[in-house]
């Protein structure tokens, strides 16, 4: 498997990104929602910017920066920092196919999103399910820091514990 090219998401990537999402859900249980309509979940109207990882013409990863929509991480950061919502965005929709892991694809996607946010003076925040230990290690390795904990609600009445992080700089 060759090196991944990280590039801005294009409409032509939608089907490949949606397929990758469904595959990641099957292997990792992530995301806990959105799989019923993967194209809608990837293309949400709240997305400010997105990138894909392309390996030989196949979409193997994805990440988005989204407007805050009441996420605990955004609320915690605004409360703790005094930043206003216009200067905070949520890093979301990060997923990498199992076959592309160990090629720094997740890190490259994160760095693209972090650079975009830093260039615009936006502080990125996120929440991650406590079960997603590899993702937590990646965030910590890239300098993200814990700002709190939350309970992520999904489905009819399901909840899972999450950790909220903020990026190292805006």
From TrEMBL:
The keyword Transferase applies. Gene3D superfamilies: 3.40.630.30. It comes from the Bacteria. Residues 4-167 form the N-acetyltransferase domain. Keywords: Transferase. This is GNAT family N-acetyltransferase. It comes from Streptomyces enissocaesilis.
């Amino acid at each position: 498997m060759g090196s991944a090219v990280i590039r801005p998401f294009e409409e032509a990537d939608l089907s490949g990104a949606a397929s990758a999402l469904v595959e990641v859900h099957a292997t990792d249980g992530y995301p806990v929602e959105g799989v019923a309509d993967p194209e809608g979940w990837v293309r949400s109207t709240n997305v400010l910017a997105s990138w894909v990882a392309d390996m030989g013409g196949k979409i193997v990863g994805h990440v988005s920066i989204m407007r805050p929509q009441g996420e605990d991480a955004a609320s915690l950061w605004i409360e703790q920092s005094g930043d206003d919502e216009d200067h905070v965005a949520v890093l979301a929709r990060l997923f990498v196919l199992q076959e592309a892991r160990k090629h720094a694809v997740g890190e490259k996607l994160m760095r693209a999103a972090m650079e975009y946010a830093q260039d615009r003076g936006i502080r990125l925040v996120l929440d991650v399910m406590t079960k997603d230990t590899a993702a937590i290690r990646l965030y910590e390795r890239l300098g993200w820091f814990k700002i709190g904990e939350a309970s992520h609600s999904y489905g009819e009445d399901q909840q899972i514990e999450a950790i909220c992080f903020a990026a190292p700089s805006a």
